[in-house]
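REQUEST ID: PR-0412
SUBMITTED BY: lab tech R.K.
PRIORITY: routine
TASK: structure prediction, single protein chain
INPUT:
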Amino acid sequence: MTQPTDNRRGMSKHALTALRLASASIPTLPLRKGKLPFGNCPACVGNACGGRPNMKTPGLCVCPQPCHGWAAATTDPDVLNSLEWASAWRNAAAVAYHPGGAGVTVVDLDNADAIAWARQTLPATRTVTTTRGEHWIYQGIMASSNAVRPGVDIKSLMQYARWLGPGVGVTAPLPDAVRALGVKEPSTARPAPQAFSVPLRGREGACRHRTPTYLDRGIAMAVQRITDARSTIHVTVYRTFLAVLSTHGGCGCLTEAHVARLFAAAQAKGESPRHCTDAWTNALTTLGL
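STATUS: complete
OUTPUT:
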């Protein structure tokens, strides 16, 4: 049950800031001391829920509490003003926002040398003063990436940034110079194969696959489903893993090569290896495999 969105008596200054930002279509979340998001609730510890998003607001967990870090950011005033979020706002040390959800990219300049580099290299844009440096904000989104050069991080998709005010200046379009920062140089050395750490745990039951083509087609369809996802990536990956295991996990025909294809597709959409492992393990547990 939520409070009426116009009932702001007793709300903290951070909650009021979040509501104001939400009215400007900027998704926000509370931060605790140390600029860290609040931890997951007991039902979501260890990503046990599979990272369930709210279909109304992509990225928001359906858990009524502010779970899952950046994915909890929302513009829904009923959520921001809810009883379930009230404790977090009372104990919040700051307000954060999801730059990608707001359609922007933040170039986080952490020291004077990084600022000097940006002034010589990047086009002028809206600038926000931070504790140690500046945030340069551009219109447009891209993949987030840390330590793209000394003292420089990029915060956009699947990342949060502390709200420190609107800043000064005019927001410029995201330049190619910033996009290039997030592109890693291809390695000339052949990468060593990564050890597969997720147990298949399939049952040795009767095989329903008349030919290997049936299994291969199922894996290809699953990879395509993940690749085609445009939002709610967490839940798409989890549900796809669940579908694959419900069909092919009972007879022991799945190999590490099959699962590696699924993981590669998920990671290409921004999922970390840990999130892939969590989603796969949760799907196995859900199905009792």
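NOTES: Confidence is low (pLDDT under 50) at residues 1-7, 53-60, 186-196.
REVIEWED BY: pending
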